[in-house]
Amino acid sequence: MRLPLVFILMTTMIDSIGIGLIIPVMPALLREIGNVPLADAAMWGGVLMTAFAAMQFLFGPVIGALSDRYGRRPILLIALFVMTLDYLVMAIAQTFWLLLAGRIVGGITAATQSTASAFMADISEPHEKAARFGLIGAAFGMGFVIGPLIGGLLAEFGTRAPFYGAAALSAANMVFGYFVMPETVTDRTRRPLTWARTNPLGAFLNVGLNPRLRNLLILFFAYQVAFMVYPAVWAYFTEARFGWSPGMIGLSLGAFGMAMAIVQGGLIRFILNWLGDRGTVIYGIVFNFFAFLVLGFVESGLVAMLFIPLTALGAVVTPAVQGMMSRATPDDSQGELQGVLSSSAALATIFSPLAMTYAFAVFAAEDADPYMPGAPFLLSAILMFVCLFAILATRRTVQS
Predict the structure, then answer these.
(1) Contact by Cβ (8 Å): 72, 66
(2) pLDDT attached to residue 197
């Protein structure tokens, strides 16, 4: 299972690379296309991220249910092929509306994260799941290392170059997966496709009926809303507060991603052994609260650059919650669960960029009083209280 595992982690990493690759160039690209100031470009960027997330929300359960019925392999390979074409279209887009169309298609193809997570659940023993989901988080973090760094470098060749880079990576991984990806859905675990399990509301209802999962789903959603502040406003925040260039923005995101990879790929195992799943979640929530608080008020670019990798020490919440929920879910419903989690994250991404970029636009405008570009991070800090209440209300029957 070594090469298939590499493929799954590469798929997750490329999803992250594709997002991180274009973050450094988005402010310049949107101003180039729309001829608008930075604050307005941030608002348009929020619209693009929301469209991307809306498609993930709508198609997460669909893709997850399709993989439960037809298998993980065909779903992942088809999605990578469409993703390659999508990046090529975005590379030649000359209007905001074509960029928007590209983000819509991209959101559908990125909904396969649920399938990748379901594959990971298929090949993992119950006690391995939280740590294995941590590997997925680490792969996502590594993508955030590679993506912004490459994006910042490619941006020197023009605002379109990162999109061509993302297309090449997607195509290469598709070819790799064609030769190494096995099928893990068997006749024993294959499940008929039904409308109730493919539409988002039906899938959410099915998972939400499980009392052991309901509070964890609320926690997962609120945490995703808060954590989305980084991709939503980081490029705009650092340019407004510190005057950073695309290259410096890419470097800072790369440092953050490297720290995430270290935490979720290695340190999380020690934290889980020490604190258990529930304790790990509580630790991550408290740590993130103070991290968001610092970023809300920081005024020194040097302090921000040194501090941003440390914020990844709180990036243990998602894999720990996924592990708790996966163990409480039957084997033939792993795709559905991961689809619901993918849709939950997407639903958070629908609301979060709009809220975060709006908060940035209001408090970072030239005539803002007070002028506080870090306001979105303070909003994320408040959301940590919601997460804390949810985990404290969680029944101990979900614990490891």
Answers:
(1) no
(2) 57
